[in-house]
Structure formats: C-alpha cells, structure tokens
Amino acid sequence: MDDREYLPLSWLGQVEYCPRRAALLLNERVWVENADTAKGRSEHERVHDQRVERRGDLLKLYEYTVFSDDLGLRGKCDCIEARRCDSGCKIRAADFPVRLYPIEYKHGSVREESSYMIQLCAQAICLEEMFSTSIPAGALFFISAHRRMEVEFTPQLRAAVQARAATLRELRDTLRIPPAEYRPKCKRCSLREYCMPKVKASAGAYCRRMTQEAMGEVDL
Ligand code: SF4
Questions:
Q1: pLDDT score recorded for residue 124
Q2: Does residue 172 contact residue 25 with C-beta atoms inside 8 Å?
Q3: What span, in angstroms and rounded, lies between the C-alpha atoms of 44 and 153?
Q4: In terms of DSSP bridges, do strands 7-8 and 73-89 run parallel, antiparallel, or are they unpaired?
C-alpha cells in the first residue's frame, strides 16, 4: 500500500449507521456525547486493558492492534480467542498453531445491529491478512446482558465491509459531507443538534456558507 492514511476501522460502523455522521466525525472532527455514547464508552473502557491470558490450549488477547493494507484500515480487537488448532496460524504469543476468533464488546441489549457485524467482520479480515489465515466467525459480547452472539462472516457481510471501507475512503479523500436524510435513527444520534438533519446542512457547513456569503465569495 502507498502512504495513504490508515482510517479507523471502528468508523465503518459509523458509515453503516449514517455516512453523514461518519463524515462529520472524520472531516469536521465533531464529537458530541449523549447518554448512549457515554454508557458505551465507560463500559468499553473497563475492558480496554491490553493483556494476554493463557489457560491450557486457549489464549485470550485483549486490546489487540490490527490493520489491513488492502482496506487501508487500522483498529483494535477487544478480545481475540486463540485456540490450539493444527491447521491454524502462528502468532507470537503462542508456541503452537492457533485458530483465531475475534470478539467485540458492546453495551445495551442483545441485538443484530449491522454496524456491529461490519466492524467485527472488518477485524477478522485484518487478522486474516496479518496472519494468512481464514476466520469463518466471531462474536459480539453484550456486556450488560452478559450474552455472546456468534456472527458468521458470510460473503455478503464481507462485501458490505469492502463497500463501507470504500465509502469511508471516498469521504476522507474528497472531504465530502453527504446531505442529511432525516430517518428514525436521527432521534438517537448524538450529532443531531450539530447535523440539523431537517435543514440538510451541518452547522459547520452552514457557518462556512454564511462566511463565504459575507465575503462575497459565492453568488447569492
Ligand atoms: S442526525 Fe441523522 S442524518 Fe444527522 S448524522 Fe445523525 S443519523 Fe445522520
């Protein structure tokens, strides 16, 4: 890969949730905390502690850095289970071949959220590239409910990862902010007041437009 910026893998989930939200985060550096994001962050911080645990033939790697040259992404896996498997791959932490199984921690109730599945699958694709292996499945772990939900990395899910990564790259390269499209999910979005989804322009873009108008740089 060339010297392109590696984009945060976790933002694929933002693209899936709303491309405009991803663009505001990426290109206008907006972050607004609401109850959902605060709860998610605090629960996540509790599990963010880089370490390796070993019990017999099973290792657990926490906070493991992953990247993909192909996708141009970097990020972290909350946890990877590495279990002894003769047909598995070699990793530094184990003196035997292992099969890898990524696990992503989430807060809230157990649910099949496509943005979560895309983020998890992207982690698996990174690991496959890093260790020349194949990873057919991983899991979402819902902290409050203490429940694990297995996710199969189907061709459709992998294609969705590729598509969201391409969109994220395009948003970054062009600095484009897609227009707002008011949908039910806007009610839960922490950027709602900044985005102003009903007026189809971000506060930042609106202010820039006003400044340009005041400077006579645009036709009125
Ligand atoms: S308020 Fe709606 S349109 Fe605006 S960023 Fe959030 S989800 Fe996207």
A1: 98
A2: no
A3: 23
A4: parallel
C-alpha–C-alpha distance, residues 77 and 18, integer Å:
22
pLDDT in tens, 88-97: 999 999 999 9
Least confident of 18-22, 103-107, 138-142, 196-200: 196-200
Strands (E), 19-57: 51-55
Tokens of residue 181, six digits = 């499209």
CATH number for the domain formed by residue range(s) 7-178: 3.90.320.10
Q: Where are the domains of the chain?
A: 7-178, 186-220
**Which pairs count as long-range contacts for 28-33, CB under 8 Å and 24+ apart, including other chains?**
28/177, 28/202, 28/204, 30/191, 30/194, 30/202, 30/204, 32/190, 32/191, 32/193, 32/194, 33/190
Collect all residues with Cβ–Cβ distance below 8 Å to 185 and sequence separation of at least 6: 17, 18
- Say which amino acid occupies 215: M
Q: Is the CB of 20 under 6 A from ligand 1?
A: yes
Distance from Cα 17 to the centre of ligand 1, integer Å: 9
Indicate which residue's Cα is closest to atom 5 of ligand 1: 21
Give me the half-sphere count of Cα atoms (radius 13 Å) on the Cβ side of residue 150. 6
